[in-house]
Structures are given as C-alpha cells and as structure tokens.
Amino acid sequence: MKLNAFVIGATGWTGAEIIRLLEQHPHIADIYPISRDADIELESIHPNLTGINKKTWSLQSLPPVTPDVVFISLPSGKSQEVASLFNNDRTRIIDLGADFRFADPATFEKIYGKPHLAPALQNAFRYGYVEEFREEIGQSRLIANPGCYVNAALCSLLPLIKKNIIDTENIFISAVNGTSGAGSSAKRELLHYNMINNMLAYSLNGHRHTQEIETVIKTVTGNEANVSLVTSHGNFARGIFMILAVKLKDNVNADRQAILNDLSEYYESNPFVFITGKERGASGIEKDYAIYPQLAKVIGSNSCHISVDIVADKRELRIVSVIDNLVKGAAGTAIQNMNIMMGYNETTGLSRYGI
Which fold has domain 3-145+330-342? Predict the structure, then answer.
C-alpha cells in the first residue's frame, strides 16, 4: 500500500525538505502541502521544488482524503491542536516541534513558556530518537521528533555514557547552526549583508534543547547529566557543526583509537552514523584537518559523522559531531521514523551520502 502524506507547515524550510525527500520515496502515493494559506504554488515559495506542480491546502480547506501519515512542522506550541485533528486509528503523526517531546506536559510549559493544550494526547506520543528507540517507534502511531541539536549530541554522547567511558557531571557543547535553523521568517540579522563574515550567538541564557538532552540521557542510562549548550548561527545555510568536551572516567585509558573503536563497534549496524576518525600524523602537532568530520560532507544526507580526540593531561575527551540540520536534524529523521512505523527498511528514500 502506498501512503497519502500531509505536510503541515509546507512553506517553511523543514516542510520543504520533507516534501523533497517524500517525492523520492517509493511508498508515497501523493503529498499534500498544507499551510496557513491555500492555493499557493509551492514552487513559488521553494524554487528547488520547481516542477512539482502542487498547490498548498489549508487547515480550513483540507484535501478530500484521509492521510496515512501527517508530518507537522510548525513552531513549538502550534502542534497540539493540529495533532488532535488527525488523531484516529489509521493516521500516523510525526511532530517535528517540541510539543510532545516531554512525558510531563508541565516540562514543556516550563521550557517553552506556553500552555500545553493537549495533555491527554501526550501519553500516546513516543520519543523518536531512532538510534535508541527503534522498537518503541515501530509499535507507535504518534511520534515526537527530537530537536536538531539533540540528535547531534545524543549520537555522540549516549554510546560513551552507556560504555562508562565519560562522566556526565559537566558536558560542554558548542554548536554552530546554519541560518535555516532560525526558521523562514524574515529577520534583519540573518540577511545576507549581515551574515557574510559574521556569526550570531543566541540563547546563551540557556538553550531549550539542553533539558531535552539531559532528559534522554537520564531515561536511557539512568545518569543525571549537567549539560551546558552554547549555540550560534554561522554564515552558511544548513548544517550543525558541534564540538563537545567531556571528562573521561578515572578508570578509562586516554586512548583515542580505542574510543574510536568502541564507537565504531556501537554503530556497526547503524545505517546513518559514521565514525570517521583516522590515525593522526606522526608528529601529532600538525594541523591535521582530515582526522575530524567536515560539515560540508554531510549536507543533503541523513548521516551523522563523529570523531574524537583527547587532551591527555586534562583527561578531556573532545568530540566533533556534524549533521545536516534539515535532514538528520529534522526531515530525514522524521521519514526514518515513518519508515520504522510502517515496517519499511529505515533507509528507504534517504541518502547516506552528502552532496
């Protein structure tokens, strides 16, 4: 059976990316873009979709079909009422906002400063971090997609915590996101004129993905985590370049290659997480760029590239994790979740390789 897919929030960057990927998916019958306004030619908003020949629908004038899957790509706080519209025994829902990521609706309200309007629906949602919760996702009809920074961080941290390699008392994360991570609304600071040769720090008073990372670490490993996440936008459109600094446990050898081997073993059967480190040069002090992941190499893919290094005298492990924020950080993971929910191969319609 092929699926009818609704994409709500189709005029945003993530909505467009979902549509782009679904167009290549062999199990999709038709895609219905839904936005605030109906009858907008989609390619007039997203020229990269030229030739798609689709107009938007609106929530007030929905397509005359029952969707098999609904992707909700709306600002946080907007998904709750929309999800309720499609909550039936047939339709799978994948929410890319934060509305259903926390088991306790009060946690969402505290972090996002908005009331939770669908607390009864919250209990039916499962958290869609694929690398850890495949079985639960496969048995679920409602999925909350992880945040983009959360995906990049958890891919790096969870195997190291589960293998008792690192402490969780002080996890420092510095992440640079493309300007698409700020959404598609016009912002003067993000104009090309301002972004060239520039970077913009934001949310240094506490990024809202911090507690999401800490919550998943506690859920999966039982460890309390203290995460410090600092974020900025770089002068590029898409991608997340993340560096993490953590302390090695006292009984762990400060052996870079051994830790890379542990990570490679952990992700051996994972189709989208790659450990890319190689042996450093003989001197160990040259600028050897090739031993760390490069952001450009994952753009357009659903992959996460990870490598590590060690400051031996400080017993500090430094990790580089790179993803495309619009694919692995959003649309790609959503489609990976759909594949698992429907019993398809999870790689269907997704690329492991950057452009």
Answer: Rossmann fold (3.40.50)
What is the mean pLDDT, run by run of 10 residues, along the chain of 355 residues?
96 97 98 96 96 96 95 94 93 97 94 92 96 97 98 98 98 97 86 92 96 98 98 97 98 94 96 87 70 96 97 96 98 98 98 94
Domain ranges of the chain: 3-145+330-342, 149-323
DSSP 101: S
- Residues forming a β-bridge with 243: 174, 320
Annotated catalytic residue: which of 94, 96, 148, 150? 148
Which whole-number Å values give the CA distances from 155 to 16, 130, 212, 349, in the listed order?
Answer: 25, 10, 14, 21
Is 148 annotated in the active site?
A: yes
User: Global pTM?
Assistant: 0.96
Distance separating alpha carbons of residues 9 and 34, to the nearest angstrom: 6
Which of the listed CATH numbers 3.40.50.970, 3.30.360.10, 3.40.50.1970, 3.40.50.740 matches domain 149-323?
A: 3.30.360.10
